[in-house]
Automatic annotation (TrEMBL):
Entry-linked SUPFAM superfamilies: TIMP-like
Annotated ranges, domain NTR: 25-152
PROSITE patterns referenced in this protein's UniProt entry, alphabetically: NTR (PS50189)
Keywords: Disulfide bond
Domain of life per record: Eukaryota
Species whose genome carries this gene: Nothobranchius kuhntae (Beira killifish)
Protein name: NTR domain-containing protein
InterPro entries noted in UniProt: Netrin_domain, TIMP-like_OB-fold
Keyword Zinc-finger: no
C-alpha cells in the first residue's frame, strides 16, 4: 500500500511546479461516534460536512480511485464552496487521496455511507474526520438531525 496524504500547507513537497503530498497512513481513520454535542462542535469547526455514499468500482488502471460517488450528496454544511463546487471537489478528493479513502473503507470493502468533515484549502478539500453512517450510531444521527437548528459558538 502506498500512502498518499491529504494536501495541506504543512505536508507539501514541491517537485517542479507541482505540490506532492507527503505520506501518512493515518489519514481518515474512521471516528467512533462520540456524544452528539462533541459531534456538533466538530461540525462547527469544519468548513464542510457531507454525507456521501461510496460504491466500489471495478478495477481501473487509469485511476487511483477505487470507489465512485453516488449521485446524491447530503450537504449539511458547504462552507465557502457552492453546491456544485463541493461535489467536484469531493470527486477530486476521492480520486487523489487514496490513503484516506482506503482507511475509511477498510471495514467496508464494497463501499458504504460516510459522513465526512474537513476544511477547504484553496481548491482542495482536506478531510479531517470521517464517520461510518450506521443506523445504530444514535449520537451521530442525533447530531445530524439537530444540526439545522444548532447555533455554533465562535
Amino acid at each position: 500500500l502506498v500512502c498518499i496524504s491529504s494536501i495541506t500547507n504543512t505536508t507539501n513537497i514541491h517537485i517542479g511546479a507541482h505540490r506532492v503530498p507527503q505520506a501518512s497512513c493515518r489519514d481518515c481513520e474512521l471516528e467512533e461516534g462520540s456524544s452528539s454535542k462533541d459531534t456538533l462542535e466538530t461540525f462547527c469547526r469544519s468548513d464542510f460536512v457531507v454525507k456521501l455514499r461510496l460504491t466500489r468500482l471495478k478495477y481501473s488502471p487509469a485511476s487511483l480511485a477505487q470507489f465512485s460517488l453516488a449521485a446524491k450528496l447530503d450537504v449539511l454544511k458547504h462552507g465557502p464552496l457552492l453546491g456544485g463546487q463541493l461535489r467536484s471537489c469531493i470527486e477530486l478528493w476521492l480520486e487523489r487521496d487514496a490513503t484516506c479513502v482506503h482507511n475509511m473503507t477498510r471495514k467496508h470493502p464494497r463501499g458504504g455511507t460516510f459522513l465526512v468533515t474537513g476544511t477547504v484549502q484553496g481548491e482542495h478539500l482536506v478531510v479531517s474526520k470521517a464517520y461510518a453512517w450506521q443506523r445504530g450510531d444514535k449520537n451521530l444521527m442525533a447530531a445530524t438531525r439537530r444540526w439545522k437548528s444548532h447555533k455554533c459558538r465562535h
